[in-house]
Amino acid sequence: MSATHTSVLATELPRPVPQTELDACPVSALFRRLGDRWSMLVIILLGGRTHRYNELHRAIEGISQRMLTRTLRTLEADGLVTRTVHPTVPPSVEYGLTDRGRSLLVPISALADWAVENQNPSGRCGT
């Protein structure tokens, strides 16, 4: 682990941790974003290549159009996803990762590797 990572983990937190500090923490914000049901999956899919909206919708079983739209808008507002409108009739829209979004693939991959290596024998999470 690099010095950048250990400095965060080595920081002594106040006890109790103030809610305002937790809410303002960029690490908490990242885990909230990646911890929602769809964001990490969208980031991973876009890590392979750009996708049109309907491609993404077909690639993610169980996501509603409303939730996919909301997830893409949030990831775009966070600077992780780009939305490119091509001037065709009808307009064609593609989604891809920004450089910032691509840089997130490395730690996501590390977390995924850890989860696979440390899964319960039952294969279920948290039990």
Structure, described:
This is DNA-binding HxlR family transcriptional regulator. InterPro entries: HTH_HxlR, WH-like_DNA-bd_sf, WH_DNA-bd_sf. Keywords: DNA-binding, Transcription, Transcription regulation. The protein has 127 residues and is mainly α. It has a single domain, classed as Arc Repressor Mutant, subunit A (Orthogonal Bundle). The protein contains eight helices and three strands. It has a three-stranded antiparallel beta sheet with strand order 1-3-2. Strand 2 and strand 3 form a beta hairpin. The longest helix has 13 residues. It is globular. 10% of the residues are buried.
Average pLDDT over all residues: 87
- CA distance, first residue to last residue: 28 Å
Number of helices: 8
Which CATH first-tier class would you pick? Mainly Alpha
CATH homolog superfamily? Winged helix-like DNA-binding domain superfamily/Winged helix DNA-binding domain
Order of secondary-structure elements: HHHHEHHEEHH
Q: Domains counted in the coordinates: how many?
A: 1
**CATH topology (fold) name:** Arc Repressor Mutant, subunit A
Low-confidence region ranges: none
Largest beta sheet: what is the strand line-up?
A: 1-3-2
Global structural class: mainly alpha
Q: Which shape, going by the Cα principal axes?
A: globular
Q: What is Rg? A: 18 Å
Number of extended strands:
3
Give the CATH architecture. Orthogonal Bundle
Query: How large is the share of residues in beta strands?
Result: 5-15%
Task: State the share of residues found in helices, binned by percent.
Answer: 55-70%
How is the biggest beta sheet arranged?
A: 3 strands, antiparallel
GO molecular function, one term: DNA binding
Protein name: DNA-binding HxlR family transcriptional regulator
InterPro entries: HTH_HxlR (IPR002577), WH-like_DNA-bd_sf (IPR036388), WH_DNA-bd_sf (IPR036390)
Organism: Actinophytocola algeriensis
